[in-house]
Amino acid sequence: MAAITETAAAVMAVLVQVWNLVRVTLVVPLLRLAIFLSLMMTVMILVEKVFVGMVSLTVRIIRLKPEKRYRWEPMRPDLETGNLAYPMVLIQIPMYNEKEVYKLSIGAACSLDWPSDRMIIQVLDDSTDPIVKDLVELECQKWKSNGVKITYEVRDNRQGYKAGALKEGMKYDYVQECDYVAMFDADFQPESDFLLRTIPFLVYNPDIALVQARWKFVNADECMMTRIQEMSLDYHFKIEQEAGSSTFAFFGFNGGWKDRTTVEDMDLAVRAGLKGWKFVYVGDVHVKSELPSTFKAYRYQQHRWSCGPANLFKKMAMEIVTNENVSMWKKFHLLYSFFFVGKIVAHTVTFIFYCIVIPVSVIVPEVEIPQWGVVYVPTLITFCKAFGTPSSIHLVIFWLLFENVMSLHRIKAALTGLLDAGRVNEWIVTEKLGDAHKPKNTDNFQDSSNIQPLINKPKKTQTNIWQRFYFSEIWIGLFMLSCGCFDLATRQQGYFIYLFLQGFAFLFIGFGYVGTYVPGS
């Protein structure tokens, strides 16, 4: 027995020596490099957030609305030509098995305040479910019988996914009659005056190619996950989109289409921007939409939103550099701010620094992270983003922990896009539940109390917990908890507080206790 104990002690001593050697010669230099790069990227993000925040605040203080920066006049019928004074507008609604929301989106588009003879609604149905196709077609026929110019178009394949459907829709002869195109996703419900408030920018300003409205969410109060999404997206629209529109007349369009990536809207926006066209964001115009309320749906959506931009960056970087139609300042904005910092650095530093570097530094005593880099700068970045939704600022800790968990999937997706590998062209339509949630009282939306949900509200419980396990989150959660325990037991640097919170957040999400649960989803 004594011999076995001595052998075990000898083996342990050798392992400790090997670890010390590897730590000093390999781990420490790599970790110091990772810390340096992470701190540098963190500062880059802070500068970017402060800049867009100051621009947005300035625009708000001096009330520099788009109507002041560009010519805008209300659309009215002409005494001689009547409704011909209104330009012809094509409204495209791409769909794919949208049984829960098709009535809402088609109904909202058909109810727009615009002369019915100056508007064509085009429902592009790629549904593979024959029952859903029949329902959508019947809905189109119902509105057509009421005098609405609406067409129901299908194709025999899904090549190019949504971009392919939109591109195919532009080939019909009646499209040649149209002057402008409005595009709404299948869950979008524009306000009735949407065209009246946006089309004048295009009519009276020939250098404007695109007008973007602000998304508002009908199910933001569904669960904690949707509240957190609302915080992130409100910052994106209120701050980032406003700043991009006010300074560079460019921002990522949310909606000739190309199907080379899974972000056909951003692809179109970048190509139009490189042609010298201007974009306008009109934050006072709202379009209701639905947030994914299941974690599975949200993961798929975030994969597409992270992989697509990275892939587009790879494919268009040289095209941007060599473009002769835009200024160097705009090229810099596109390459550095929009793509590199916004789509690559943000995902990279969030996961590498907060979920890998900080935990590992706990078990490597030779390495220390300066307090300004681990506390002050991240805190400033967090509050810069949290002010997009002041009513939810009390949720900022939960938002921060959740965003760090999601950074795992975003960095994987961004790497997939940069390497053009694996799931780079994966397109899974975001699951929509179609619940008829009332908007907040502060929104000037029409009363939606008469709208009935097409499926029952999902329960937040489940019978088979194994269906909700996400093992990558579980393993990282256990890793962070282990590092937290090590810090608490040995060094006591204070990191254990963060590591415990973040580790439990990974586990909480890994075991499926986030969002709603829909059986079979």
Please outline what is shown here.
The chain is of the alpha/beta class and 521 residues long.
Summed up, the helix count is: 14
Classified in CATH, the superfamily of the domain at 66-292 is: Spore Coat Polysaccharide Biosynthesis Protein SpsA, Chain A
Strand adjacency order, main sheet = 3-2-1-4
Terminal CA distance:
56 Å
Structure description:
Keywords: Glycosyltransferase, Transferase. Its EC number is 2.4.1.32. This is Beta-mannan synthase protein. The chain has 521 residues and is of the alpha/beta class. The protein has a domain at 66-292: Spore Coat Polysaccharide Biosynthesis Protein SpsA, Chain A (Alpha-Beta Complex). 55% of the residues lie in helices and 9% in strands. The protein is built from 14 helices and seven strands. The strands form two sheets. Strands 3-2-1-4 form a four-stranded parallel β-sheet, with helices on both faces. Strands 5-7-6 form a three-stranded mixed β-sheet. Strand 1, helix 3 and strand 2 form a beta-alpha-beta unit. Helix 1 (2-61) crosses helix 11, helix 9 crosses helix 10 and helix 10 crosses helix 13. The N and C termini lie far apart (56 Å). The model is unreliable at 436-463 (pLDDT under 50).
